[in-house]
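Quick one, T. Sequence first:
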Amino acid sequence: MSLHLKPNPDKKVDGKPVSVPDPITGEPLQEDGKVVPKSTYWLRRLQCGDAVHVVTAKTDVNEDIENNKMSLEEAIAHCYEQGTDEFLTKSGQPDCHVLSSLTGTKVTAADRDAATPKQEG
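Structure tokens:
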């Protein structure tokens, strides 16, 4: 899944437009935007307001935002797939802050634990 994002034109840093670097290329997002992979990095840029969705005439912004959120189960699976400290706590559980970013809702440890598949054996 992907997102079409651009730097937030209303956000300024030291009076200058915010620069949002692509973590893969190191190049900043252009003003007209770019299609990027849906990842924790880009979801965090959305959450903190550095980036915004590119909205075209045929895209409703609320629909676009809703379509780009993961279910809690998808977010948990994504964290395990990534398997790094950015996604998992020291105890190896998906980080609740990351899960909240991916789902667009506040995720507590109890929510995470209830939705995490149980290991057999």
